[in-house]
Every structure is written in C-alpha cells, then in structure tokens.
C-alpha cells in the first residue's frame, strides 16, 4: 500500500501498537508531463472551437502544441490527439481546469496559474487604480518588452479601420475601468434570443488582454471581437473589406449602449456617461431661389420661422473648407491648412450653414449646451459626388494639450460648466492614401508616462507630439482635464 493512501497514527491504546489508518484519497496526482507544456505556442485569442469538428462545446486546448480539441472521454478528439501525438496536458477553455489525458485526471499545480491568467486576465479595483500610475514595462515570454495598454492589434485582412477605434477607446479611462471588471456587466439581462450582449463580453475580453501585464506575447488578435462585430452588424462591418472608422465608431458605441440596457437618459450607460453631449439646433427654411414672384413669399409666415430643437450627440462633425482649385503663383500646390478653432466655430451658435435637400434649402446654426467628459471630433475628409469619392487633404492645426472648448460656448453656458472646458488629446486617428486604397493608423497617449505612441496594426512606435499635428487627422478623442 502506497504512502499517499495510508498514514501512521499512534493510537492511545494501552499496548501502544502503531495502527495504519486509511487516509481519504488525495484530490490530485502529481503530473509527470508538466515540463512538456510549451508556452510559446499558446494563443487564446482565436475562436474557442475544436480544430477537427469545429464545435464550440466542451473545448480543450492542448498545452503542448496549442491546438483546440473537443472532449476528454475515450474516442473524443482531445483523447485521440493525446494518444496519437503523445501530448498529455490539456486545459478546458470554459472551466479553466487542467487535465492529463489519456489517464483523465485533473492537474492542480500553482505553476499553471500564469496560463490561466493569460486566458482570462482578472483585475482588482486596486490594480485598475494603479494603471494610471504604472510606468513599468512588462516582458512577454519571447523577451519582447511592452507597455500594458499599448499593444499592437493583428490585422486579419482589412480590419485596420476597426483596430484604430478599439485602440483609442482602450485609452478612455472610465470605459476601460468599467470593462476591465467583468462583474460590472455580468448580470445585465437581455431579452431571450438576443445575442448583442456578446459584443459587450468580447469588448471586455479584448480590453483585459490589451491591459494584461503578464501576457505571453506583445500583441493581441481581435479575432473573437471582430466575429461578434460581423455577426451583430449583420455583415455590415467585416474584416475582409475596408470600412469607414466613423461609421464603425457610431454603430459600435450605440450597439454597446443598447446591449448595456441603455436608455435615452444621460447616465443610463457607461457610453453615455463618457461621450454624450447636448446641443441646440436652430433651423430656418430658405425661400426657393427660382421663385417666380419673390414678393409673394411671406418670410414672416410660420413656414419660414426659426425652429429650435434639442439634440444629443456622441461626436461632433467638423467640416473642412473646400480645397483651392488653382495652384499658387509659383505653380506649386501648397497643402492648405486650417486651425482647429476655425472648424469649431460651426458650433458657436452664431455661424450659419446652408444645407440643401432634394427640394428645399435650410439655414442651420449649432449651439453646444453641454460638453461631455470625452469629446469626439470627426473631421469630414471625404465627399461623395456622382462619380467618385474625393478626399480633402487640408491639414488641421490643433494643440495636443490645453484645448479650450469654452471659447465656442455662449457666456451663460460657459458659466454652467464652471471653468471645466479645458481638454487634452488622448487619441488621434489618421487616414493615409487615396479614398479607395487608404489605410488607418492611430496615435494614443500613455497617460502615466505622457508618451505618445503611433499604432498601425502590429507596429507600435513612440512618436513626438509635434509630429501628430502634421498628419491628416480624421477622428480625435479629447479628455476633459480634471484638475
């Protein structure tokens, strides 16, 4: 009888004989195959489905070769793989338990905790607080140094439009802090048959992987996140076809808001708490220019009176001035430049802009009544005409720090904000190339080190803030300064 199953215990009997008393069977057996685990091949970013049967039910990862197989019992794919290849250690991707096959016993060993953490990183409130002060680089298994939160995203084919949005949203602190704690949204109830909550879970998983300080590799593949996007947008957004980041951003924020049971109330979800602002729109109908008898039109009638509507917004659309048609006197076409404040004057309540519809023309004025904690600006670079899409290359001059959006508010509304109108840039998305074949890259600010990084899919490089202002900015995210 083995020593594990029995132990000696001296009974307090008169004859003092040592009696062997049976022990309950131990909970686990020491696995002799732990040294065969290869952490370099482990990648939990891909869809959790069996590589043979493509089923999602009861999937195990082989920790020797990194492939996924179904089942654990005899004649299952994982069992067959363990016998055929001599790979013995498997991890259940759902329960996070380790097993040794074909002997089929559970392996309990603290040395495997790092694998469990990579599959499902968990953050305590204390760790989340520390993220804003952490200036320490982390080391991946292959020796690559990386900064948690500043990690490249894999481009599967043409999903750079999606990657840049995800990278910038990962730097929005309230959003990040909310999604890093799974319990914040684990109990949200959705109607039966509604799969939109998958989008919330996948975004949370992606953010936890991006901010993981103990990752095995210095990049993340957004594969599962993109699968949820394709499914839930009914193939409107795909990763094999380029789309417009602003369309994706608008759809994504609204879908997350709905999936988190958000309503029209300002504080009904973390999305509205972070990005929702309010404006007033003044609309006045213009008389038709080809009216037969201008004298007959009564401009004081109700039809031509100014209408006021209150409107919420998640981002502001800034219009670029049209590009000059002619070259300058030196026969060279200079790239036109415009100041950010010039673009923002559209929202000061005084500037009117004409909008043409099929039949009628309107004059509109926009007045911001409430600024959000995070302000998203969309600089409209593309215009569609009958034949093709045209891109406006005008460079926008913008400050990276201390941007005062109070300058476009009326004095009464500025007083309501109590001086809290100074913003700083935290994310900047740039479009390079032609409208049809262009690519996107993002600039993000790592707050603790105040270092800017340029991210183009897997490429992450540090960049000077002065260089950011020279790019063809497309979407920008500004954060309200708290102090």
From TrEMBL:
Ubl conjugation keyword on record: yes
One of the protein's GO biological processes: spliceosomal complex assembly
Known EC number: 3.4.19.12
Main location: nucleus
GO molecular function annotation: cysteine-type deubiquitinase activity; zinc ion binding
Residue span(s) of domain UBP-type: 29-126
Domain USP positions: 151-481
GO terms for cellular component: spliceosomal complex
Leading EC class: hydrolase
Subcellular location: Nucleus
Catalytic activity: Thiol-dependent hydrolysis of ester, thioester, amide, peptide and isopeptide bonds formed by the C-terminal Gly of ubiquitin (a 76-residue protein attached to proteins as an intracellular targeting signal)
Xref: InterPro entries: Peptidase_C19_UCH, Ub_carboxyl-term_hydrolase, USP, USP39, Znf_UBP
Matches recorded under CDD domains: Peptidase_C19M (cd02669)
UniProt keyword terms in alphabetical order: Cell cycle, Cell division, Hydrolase, Isopeptide bond, Metal-binding, mRNA processing, mRNA splicing, Nucleus, Phosphoprotein, Spliceosome, Ubl conjugation, Ubl conjugation pathway, Zinc, Zinc-finger
PANTHER family reported in the protein's UniProt record: U4_U6.U5 TRI-SNRNP-ASSOCIATED PROTEIN 2 (PTHR21646:SF16), UBIQUITIN CARBOXYL-TERMINAL HYDROLASE (PTHR21646)
Family label: Belongs to the peptidase C19 family.
SUBUNIT field: The U4/U6-U5 tri-snRNP complex is a building block of the precatalytic spliceosome (spliceosome B complex). Component of the U4/U6-U5 tri-snRNP complex composed of the U4, U6 and U5 snRNAs and at least PRPF3, PRPF4, PRPF6, PRPF8, PRPF31, SNRNP200, TXNL4A, SNRNP40, SNRPB, SNRPD1, SNRPD2, SNRPD3, SNRPE, SNRPF, SNRPG, DDX23, CD2BP2, PPIH, SNU13, EFTUD2, SART1 and USP39, plus LSM2, LSM3, LSM4, LSM5, LSM6, LSM7 and LSM8.
Name of protein: Ubiquitin carboxyl-terminal hydrolase 39
């Amino acid at each position: 009888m083995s020593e594990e199953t029995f132990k000696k215990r001296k009974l307090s009997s008169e004859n003092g004989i040592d009696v062997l008393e049976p022990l309950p069977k131990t909970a686990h057996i020491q696995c002799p195959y732990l040294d065969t685990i290869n952490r370099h091949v482990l990648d939990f970013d891909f869809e959790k489905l069996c590589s043979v049967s493509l089923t999602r039910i009861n999937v195990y990862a082989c920790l020797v070769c990194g492939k996924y197989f179904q089942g654990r019992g005899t004649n299952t794919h994982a069992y067959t793989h363990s016998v055929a290849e001599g790979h013995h250690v498997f991890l259940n991707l759902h329960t996070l338990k380790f097993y040794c096959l074909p002997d089929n016993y559970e392996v309990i060993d603290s040395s495997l905790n790092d694998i469990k953490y990579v599959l499902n990183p968990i953050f305590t409130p204390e760790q989340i607080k520390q993220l804003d002060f952490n200036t320490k680089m982390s080391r991946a298994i292959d020796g690559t140094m990386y900064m948690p939160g500043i990690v490249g995203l894999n481009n599967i084919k043409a999903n750079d439009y999606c990657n840049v949005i995800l990278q910038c949203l990962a730097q929005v602190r309230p959003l990040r802090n909310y999604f890093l704690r799974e319990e914040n949204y684990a109990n949200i109830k959705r109607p039966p048959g509604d799969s939109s909550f998958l989008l919330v879970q996948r975004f949370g998983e992606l953010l936890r992987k991006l901010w993981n300080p103990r990752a095995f590799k210095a990049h993340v593949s957004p594969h599962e996140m993109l699968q949820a996007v394709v499914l839930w947008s009914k193939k409107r957004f795909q990763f094999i076809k380029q789309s417009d980041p602003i369309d994706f951003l608008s759809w994504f924020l609204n879908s997350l808001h709905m999936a988190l049971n958000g309503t029209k109330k300002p504080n009904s979800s973390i999305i509205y708490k972070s990005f929702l602002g309010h404006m007033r729109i003044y609309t006045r109908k213009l008389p038709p220019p080809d009216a037969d008898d201008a004298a007959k039109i009564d401009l004081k009638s109700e039809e031509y009176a100014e209408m006021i509507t209150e409107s919420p917004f998640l981002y502001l659309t800034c219009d670029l001035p049209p590009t000059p048609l002619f070259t300058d006197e030196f026969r060279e076409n200079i790239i036109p430049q415009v100041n950010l404040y010039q673009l923002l004057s559209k929202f000061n309540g005084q500037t009117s802009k004409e909008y043409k519809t099929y039949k009628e023309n309107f004059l509109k004025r926009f007045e911001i009544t409430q600024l959000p904690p995070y302000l998203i600006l969309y600089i409209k670079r593309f215009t569609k005409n009958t034949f093709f899409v045209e891109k406006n290359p005008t460079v926008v001059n913008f400050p990276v720090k201390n941007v005062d959006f109070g300058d476009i508010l009326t004095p009464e509304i500025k007083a309501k904000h109590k001086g809290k109108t100074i913003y700083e840039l935290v994310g900047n998305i740039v479009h390079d190339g032609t409208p049809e074949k262009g690519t996107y890259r993002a600039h993000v600010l790592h707050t603790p080190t105040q270092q800017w990084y340029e991210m183009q899919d897997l490429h992450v490089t540090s960049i000077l803030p002065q260089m950011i202002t020279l790019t063809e900015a497309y979407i920008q995210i500004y954060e309200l300064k708290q102090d």
